[in-house]
Design a protein that fits this description.
It contains 11 helices and 17 strands. By secondary structure, the chain is an alpha/beta fold. α4 crosses α5.
Length: about 350
């Protein structure tokens, strides 16, 4: 066991505070990672505040982890000391179900083991990236290519893969019209990736406040959803819409923006149920779908793609002492576009 410093929420809705946690000893197939940077995802806030249901406390959030390998177990073959690596939203799965065998570990039939707010195979709670070090099985660690600096790579481990996976699955590319709903931590990566894939990209945001940013990030068009004319003007336009917002939307209205047999895919997860008139999907043969991160192999594919196209996240680097302030700013949409903790400050 190794004692490391971390920032934890001691109870639901409580401010995060500096503490220490125990990391397990390195096992045969484990990798010990010195965490350099950890992104702050909106889902960290949902879980620390129990917005998605009962949680495990004390909680050390963080599933956008970038660091350097400092020790490997005797059976490790994928990594060696000094490698630049990342850890995303899960640190294990059953490895035996059809989904795991198909590289869809995120949909493990027995439930993947989340990087934090979960219980590992050893029966111990998992603790995330707001800490100095982490020990992870090599099969759930990915390599960060040299073309990406670790600070801008960290958010790719959640925000990057969360957008890359549905954009690839639903065929974003040349000749396709793709809309990204929301230009935040997730949405800004959606714009960058969809543009790099060759799609014609539109941002649908509440206001035009971030229009200049959206166009610089690769959007071809930018519309305010608060303008009622937007839904009239864009009716029947898109092959694919990816919604990144965690507030409930008028899905019936957004479905009118799809072409026949188009898809509206949700990666944002509102805490409240939604209302839907099924004729909104039946008419036009439309798809209303969801997507959750990606498997380990696809996450590596995403990192390699982002390195090839120089796609890092747009970040604001903060000290660990600023985490609580950062949470408040995320909730008021006051970040462009991802807070990243410099873990040297823990």
């Amino acid at each position: 066991m190794t004692t490391v410093a971390a920032y934890a929420a001691p109870a639901a809705k409580a401010p995060l505070e500096r503490t220490t946690i125990e990391r397990r000893a390195v096992r045969e197939f484990d990798v010990l990672i010195d965490i350099k940077f950890a992104g702050i995802c909106h889902s960290d806030i949902h879980q620390a505040q129990e917005g998605w249901g009962e949680a495990i406390f004390p909680m050390v959030p963080g599933h956008e982890i970038a660091g350097v390998v400092s020790e490997v177990g005797p059976g490790v073959t994928r990594f060696q000391v000094g490698d630049r690596v990342g850890v995303g939203c899960m640190v294990d799965s059953c490895r035996e179900c059809d989904n795991c065998k198909a590289g869809l570990e995120q949909y493990c039939a027995k439930g993947n083991i989340p990087t934090y707010n979960g219980i590992g195979r050893d029966g111990e709670p998992t603790y995330g990236g707001y800490s100095e070090k982490v020990v992870v099985d090599e099969n759930y660690v990915v390599r960060i290519p040299d073309g990406l600096s670790l600070d801008v790579a960290a958010p790719l481990l959640c925000a990057g893969i969360t957008l890359y996976s549905p954009l690839k699955r639903w065929g974003a590319g040349p000749g396709k019209k793709v809309a990204i709903v929301g230009l935040g931590g997730l949405g800004h990566m959606g714009v960058k990736i969809a543009h790099a894939l060759g799609a014609e990209v539109t941002v649908l945001s509440q206001s035009l406040r971030k229009k200049d940013d959206g166009l610089k990030l690769g959007a071809d068009h930018y519309y305010a959803t608060s303008d009622e004319n937007t839904f009239k003007e864009l009716a029947g336009t898109f092959d694919l819409i990816v919604s990144t917002v965690s507030a409930p939307l008028d899905f019936n209205a957004y479905l009118t923006l799809l072409k026949t047999q188009g898809a509206l895919v949700n990666v944002g997860a509102p805490e409240e149920p939604i209302s839907l008139n099924l004729f909104s999907v039946i008419g036009g043969g439309k798809t209303l779908a969801g997507s959750m991160i990606g498997g380990i192999a696809e996450t590596q594919e995403m990192l390699d793609f982002c390195a090839e196209h120089s796609l890092g996240a747009e970040i604001e680097l903060i000290a660990a002492s600023e985490i609580n302030e950062a949470y408040e700013r995320v909730q008021s949409s006051d970040v462009r576009y991802r807070f990243v903790i410099d873990t040297a400050t823990i």
